[in-house]
């Protein structure tokens, strides 16, 4: 086959190698033509020409890889299939041309699903507007505690196509089950995916410029439930996730399993007196409840877990239990799990004030969950709003705010929402977008804070106006806090 791969990023390069290794003739197209793209193109073409050991296939079967830079719109002649990287919009001219030519467009996740061999590992899927990575990593930790050979893959950073094609090669132990993080982009391009069990953690407006509407965004998220065989896990507090379960076409016998921060009903997991309990995977759901872990077992040593991380743990536990994992493994896996940096990360306590880095809170839904975790907050917020509005966020969080420090290009949108809904809260508006603004922001937040307060970086915005990514933004916050501690000592 002649396969066109759209995009020269991580997933595109991975798909190109995998498909060429299976004998396809591959053309990679990318609209960019900068140093980064040229370096990636040279690496791919060298791999195809030399049969580098880093590849996934036998060099003798490779039909070659051609890379075309500076033109991502034109469909290469003779294309039989287009494999797209997740971020390419459905309205891209390349896909319009493919449709006109009767050529299917799929994603790398779809290719990975189609290429699974006999006895392939089951997939436990996780999606949602926020919390996907944390939940998938919690799930993998629980599965490992059960003694299963597993891996967290997909949107988390490890291309799933590499894992699927590498299973059992060179004498490696095949995976028993995969914990798969799936974005709405990936799900849009994966029409035949059928997971063992899957969860939608929450739904809030995001990526609407890509999907076109909230309805289309939700529908793509809901694809994760299609064809599930054992369990569709939903958020009791988010009715939209339950509606997606109701709309899904699943295998006979597949169950709807809810998770809640309250007392669980039958076929739910929830919290009772500081315990995570299961009323779904027990013999008598009407009368029995199985203790799984203590709330304190969730990332022990990092303080009281935020409510949304308790919800993430319950979702992970539900998927693991659907796969037959014992209660003790849920507890041990949660104890062994350590959150990634910049996700409700405790940086320091200085003069009775706690400093928390949640730079990963890049949208209003994530920031709302972060703000709900603390009682008295000096909030550092702002960046690129991506079309978001902030009135609802400010309304829900106003009572917790001791003060606000605003940074970034779209800070005026947050300032205006604060003026409307929290006019009594003091606001410091930093009229600068250089990276050094974070140090000043931390100093201003410290001035506003009182002992017992939390200075919280939860920007509710993307970072690219000031920083390369949210990681660099979080690092700048942590460095500024450490400057405080160094000055005090």
Features:
alpha/beta, nine-stranded mixed beta sheet, 17 helices, 20 strands
Q: Given the structure, what is the number of helices?
A: 17
**What is the molecular shape?**
globular
Strand arrangement, major sheet: 7-8-6-9-10-11-12-13-14
- Which percent band covers the strand fraction? 15-25%
Mean pLDDT: 91
Major sheet description: 9 strands, mixed
Describe this structure in words.
This protein has 17 helices and 20 strands. 52% of the residues are buried. Helix content is 36%, strand content 20%. It has helices at residues 10-21, 35-50, 93-100, 108-114, 132-145, 160-166, 184-188, 208-211, 214-222, 239-247, 307-322, 327-336, 364-371, 391-397, 411-421, 437-448, 470-488, and strands spanning 2-6, 25-30, 65-69, 81-84, 104-107, 122-127, 150-154, 177-181, 197-200, 231-235, 255-259, 268-272, 275-278, 290-294, 345-350, 353-357, 377-381, 401-406, 427-429, 454-457. Residues 52-62 have low confidence and may be disordered. It is globular and about 65 Å long.
Structural topology:
Layout: E1 2-6, H1 10-21, E2 25-30, H2 35-50, E3 65-69, E4 81-84, H3 93-100, E5 104-107, H4 108-114, E6 122-127, H5 132-145, E7 150-154, H6 160-166, E8 177-181, H7 184-188, E9 197-200, H8 208-211, H9 214-222, E10 231-235, H10 239-247, E11 255-259, E12 268-272, E13 275-278, E14 290-294, H11 307-322, H12 327-336, E15 345-350, E16 353-357, H13 364-371, E17 377-381, H14 391-397, E18 401-406, H15 411-421, E19 427-429, H16 437-448, E20 454-457, H17 470-488
Parallel strand pairs: 1-2, 1-4, 2-3, 4-5, 6-8, 6-9, 7-8, 9-10, 10-11, 11-12, 16-20, 17-18, 17-20, 18-19
Antiparallel strand pairs: 12-13, 13-14, 15-16
Helix pairs in contact: 1-2, 4-6, 5-11, 5-12, 9-10, 16-17
